[in-house]
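Box 4.2: Ligand-aware structure prediction
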Amino acid sequence: MGESSDVETSEGYRAVCRVEDVPAQIALKVQLGERGVLICRDGDDIYAVDEICPHKNQSMQRAPLVDGEIICPHHRYRFDLETGSCNRRCAPVQTYDVQIRDGRVWVKM
Ligand code: FES
């Protein structure tokens, strides 16, 4: 990835990291403009969700990932990485479209 002053964008997507930099079991925080976004791996699939948990507006940075879900470290609510839906009575977490191109993760802004 380039320096922050060397942002690459294409068709509304921004390159945020290399695929190989996305860990297997923990969310990776990147910055997308003003917004913190968590890049999350589920096997070969990569998802992007908002950093902020909709339950109590806490950061889910470095949250664990299990079976296609991100588990908020604060109260253990679980959010589906694909749909953002929660396993409890809570609003869904914002999800973002992701593309993999040239070995990099691109997130729709
Ligand atoms: S702040 Fe995330 S589950 Fe409560």
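In the box above, the bound molecule is FE2/S2 (inorganic) cluster. The chain has one domain: 9-108.
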